[in-house]
Write a structure and sequence with these properties.
single chain, 9-stranded mixed sheet, 9 strands, binds S-adenosylmethionine
Length: 257
């Protein structure tokens, strides 16, 4: 495998490369790591909708971290530290774990997972957006973190590869969010944990309109899953829900396989 010239640790990239299921990734030759992350999608653009296009812009990833921190503080009354502590509890993260951060953006959770799981563990961040991943790689300081360009709807890993997997603030951008939930459940080992944070639609009439509106989806590229729908998807995929917290329009849910 060619050497990576970016900040990202070559050691972690090689650990990640060993975890990738080549059949699922449709890769026969060497992995492309020229941008500092494993790129499984080549130059393919899988952006669907306006929301996705914003994620792939040059500017938004640059301002994402402070923007996300501010939004979380104002809308959810949480600090970055308290949201991370919640993520750690939901995922039951321990030293030595292999953890996957699906739709990792600029790595705002992934890098911190690297600190928690320590040098014996591995934190992998997966995202569709090359510009988000460029930020993630540039800002990465942890030797046991590796990034991957791939699709949450088609995770390139065999069943049970990870001890835990998260997907924060991203299901709403996906054309088939419940398929992403199945994929999260699939790649976690029996006994492993998953954590999801997503804007959800409640049971009321407004919730029903938002949930069922193809117009909202077509114009904005945004999909709101229903709370009950999300819970049912988790149990259907063999998970037991351990924690559910609704804060405003956002739901945090933890589940164990
Ligand atoms: C709002 S950011 C969330 C970043 C981070 N998880 C957080 O909680 O702050 C949403 C991310 O989801 C990614 N994304 C959307 N659809 C995806 C898909 N199908 N596969 C992988 N990543 C996806 C976008 O590229 C974007 O980086």
């Amino acid at each position: 495998m060619p050497h990576t010239t970016h900040h990202q640790s070559g050691h972690a990239v090689q650990k990640l490369a060993k975890l990738i299921d080549r059949d699922r990734a449709h890769i026969t030759g060497e992995f492309d790591i020229s941008a500092g992350y494993v790129n499984l999608l080549g130059s393919e653009n899988r952006a669907s909708g306006i929301g996705q296009s914003i994620m792939q812009s040059t500017l938004y990833p640059l301002i994402y971290r402070p923007w996300r921190a501010l939004g979380t503080r104002l809308m959810l009354g949480r600090s970055v530290a308290s949201e991370r502590a919640l993520a750690r509890d939901l995922l039951d993260l321990e030293v030595g774990d292999k953890v996957l951060d699906v739709a990792c953006g600029p790595g705002n959770f992934t890098d911190w997972y690297g600190d928690v799981v320590g040098s014996e563990g591995l934190a992998v961040g997966l995202d569709l957006s090359p510009t988000m991943l460029a930020q993630a790689v540039a800002g990465s300081r942890s030797p046991n973190v590796a990034y991957l360009r791939g699709d949450a709807l088609e995770l390139p890993f065999a069943d049970g590869t990870f001890d835990s997997a998260s997907c924060f603030l991203a299901l709403f951008l996906m054309p088939d969010p419940l398929r992403a939930v199945s994929e999260l459940a699939r790649v976690v080992r029996p006994g492993g944990h998953i954590a999801i944070m997503a804007p959800t639609a409640g049971p009321g009439p407004l919730g029903m309109v938002v949930r069922s509106s193809n117009v909202v989806r077509a114009v904005s590229g945004v999909t709101f899953v229903g709370r009950a729908q999300l819970a049912a998807a988790l149990t259907r995929n063999g998970l037991t829900i351990t924690t559910t917290r609704h804060i405003g329009m956002v739901t945090y849910v933890g589940a164990q396989k």
